[in-house]
Design brief:
single chain; mainly alpha; elongated
């Protein structure tokens, strides 16, 4: 398989992944009888999938040893930056959509003041800010920090915190054991699914 074919395959995989997210988001919205806004459902799905991909790209070098780990770390650098950047944008959009829902106004009419109030005065907003911060930190790590296994471990830790922030800060925070169980479930699912995506993006054979 030549380089061009590999590139097309990865591009098709990425497009297919986005299509699956949008399709499942539409199905989920339909099944809930429109209880959740389509925009909120789609943005949440995209943010979660981007976060999972970011986690997987940090985890995948740990699945190998020696020179292969170093090679995977190097090859995961650019995809990690792209995934973290997409995650950051999705989390910012999710914050704005959440502010619009809380204020009962269309997304196109929500302003900076409303968004800032939502981000600072509500539990959902504060946990959203934490996720945005985590995504931003991982993006900086991917762009600036040396591409070493140790850096990858740091990116994984920050990503994990960003993924579980909403669970810890949401309604499950009232039940410590329930919150921990949900957080473990989220991280396990994200690590498994994200690692598969990372393998597609970094391994040729």
């Amino acid at each position: 398989m030549d380089g061009a074919t590999k590139g097309v395959t990865r591009r098709q995989a990425a497009v297919g992944g986005v299509a699956v997210v949008l399709g499942t988001s539409a199905a989920a919205w339909a099944l809930t009888s429109a209880q959740a806004a389509p925009a909120a459902t789609a943005v949440r799905a995209l943010a979660d999938c981007a976060g999972a991909a970011t986690l997987g790209l940090g985890v995948v070098p740990m699945l190998d040893t020696g020179r292969h780990r170093e090679e995977l770390t190097q090859r995961a650098g650019s995809p990690l930056a792209a995934a973290a950047g997409f995650w950051l944008v999705a989390e910012l959009c999710r914050l704005v959509v959440g502010a619009a829902a809380a204020a009962a106004v269309p997304v196109t009419r929500v302003g900076m003041t409303t968004t800032a109030e939502f981000a600072t005065a509500t539990s959902a907003g504060r946990s959203g800010v934490f996720s945005v911060t985590a995504a931003g930190l991982v993006l900086v790590i991917a762009l600036v920090a040396p591409k070493t296994p140790a850096t990858g471990v740091g990116a994984v830790g920050v990503t994990a915190l960003g993924l579980v922030a909403r669970t810890i800060g949401g309604h499950m925070s009232a039940n410590a054991f329930g919150g921990i169980a949900i957080a473990i479930h989220i991280l396990a699912a994200a690590a498994g699914g994200g690692a598969l995506v990372a393998l597609v993006l970094t391994v040729d054979h």
